Amino acid sequence: MASFRDGPLTMKLQYCRKKGNLLFFRRRVPLDLREQLGKDYFVASLGTADPREALPLIRAWLKKTDKEWGELRSPTRAGTLQRARQLLAEYGVDPVAPAEGPLWAFEDVLAETQGDRDVLPEPHRTALQVLQGVREFTLEDAIDEYVAARPGDATRAERALRYLKSYLGGDRDIRKLRRVDVNGFVQHLLGQDMSTTTVQRYLTPLKAAFGRAIRENELKCENVFARVEIPQMGKDKVDREVFTLDQYRALDAALNAHPQDTLRSILLVVSETGARLAEIVGLAKADLKLDATPPHIALKPHPWRPLKTPGSTRKIPLTDRARDSLRAAKERTSDHVHLYPQYSTAEGTRTDSVSAALVKWVRTREGLKDTRLGNHSLRHGMKDLLRSIKCPAEAADQIIGHATPGMGANYGEGYPLEMLYAWIIAANAKKTP
Fold first, then answer.
1. How many C-alpha atoms does 361 have within 13 Å on its Cβ side?
2. Which end of the chain is more exposed for a tag (fewer CB within 10 A), N or C?
């Protein structure tokens, strides 16, 4: 544990050691894993000498080591496969083309490892299955690897997997899945009264997970989720309602009458900025520039919450009301990284839960009952508010993170933040009676 002076106070950082001018994360390896890992301590440089910068990094390393050590104690199929491949690589054997490597070296290791036992231990057993070509690569394997690479997509990907496994009657090797299975799955979802756009949302992570699994594991099969046709796609679309000025005023009255909490803070900021719900739910405290001139959010992707498009990385100007709400949210939590830790953690964001709770709340407020207004309606409403004050379309797109059509939009740095701030203030002023 390292100690640091901060004026009259002394700070102590657990799992931290100072060496030279840098701080290092240092954690004792559990006794049951020391032989497996070949060391008593795990050490990693934090790349800083500032204890305040080190604290969130220490938390991140704690989560990472917890996850890796948990995997060693109770390995998932994807984790076991990864360890098996690493084992093969240590002996110069390519799991994709084993005949080209020194198989005799690995066979000797297998003989020594098995000894008098009837069953090989892991990961040797999986490594042998890989070499023999009998190791299945299942739907769960594909989703596990995809979620590990894209934790922000975990909720939707895992829900899509549950639907698919339910339809198929269980897990299956992805190399044995056929196009007829996928087309049947689409019909099955449509038969559950899902809209065509909802079905497409569930197919998207499956397509991405299959593509990644085939590419990264060099599987010799096609992505059966590529270019899937959904019958009558988009023809069942119901136009989304957009907030009118009277409905904005009803929403503001409801927000003013309700004590500020996490959900109401998120809703207020979405209403005042036109940002996507996930963008606000996944904010880090470091994204907030509340004392800048003008105050704004420096929105960027995070491991727990990617952004929808490259153009979504932007600076979002804040009204006084949105700034004060964000400041209060920042002061309400002791989490050093996440602004809304109830719904955003290192593992991902629970945007769907926030959306469901807010939609239910909004549609039960006076002046908003019996509507189909939702969180995304606020983005469309902000676009209308910006149009009403004659804000240029490119500037409006820059504020709410829409792609502006045309080649010219790709040149230059866009409108200055001060101009965007003036437009967002004027747009929100339209809501005032």
1. 16
2. C
pTM: 0.59
Q: What percent of the chain has pLDDT over 90?
A: 45
Cα–Cα dist 202/417, whole Å: 37
199 and 147 share one domain: yes
Domain that holds residue 125: 77-132
Is residue 310 in a domain?
yes
The answer to whether 272 touches 397, Cβ cutoff 8 Å, is: no
Provide the percentage of residues in the chain whose pLDDT is more than 70: 85
Residues 253 and 146 in one domain: no
> How many CB atoms within 10 Å of residue 348?
19
Sign of CA dihedral 242, 255, 320, 308: negative
Tell me: do 178 and 274 sit in the same domain.
no
- Single-letter amino acid code for the residue at 201: R
CATH classification of the domain holding 347: 1.10.443.10
Helices 103-114 and 124-132: crossing angle in degrees, nearest 10, is: 140
Residues 404 and 312: their CA atoms lie apart, in Å, by: 12
**pLDDT, tens digit, for every residue of 220-236?**
889 999 999 999 888 87
What is the Cα 148 distance to its own chain's centre? 10
Which residue in the block uniquely carries the two structure tokens 């290092």? 24
Residues 29 and 143 in one domain: no
Instruction: Report the alpha-carbon distance of residue 36 to residue 432 in Å, rounded.
Output: 65
Would you call 199 exposed, middle or buried from its count of C-beta atoms within 10 A (0-12, 13-18, 19+)? buried
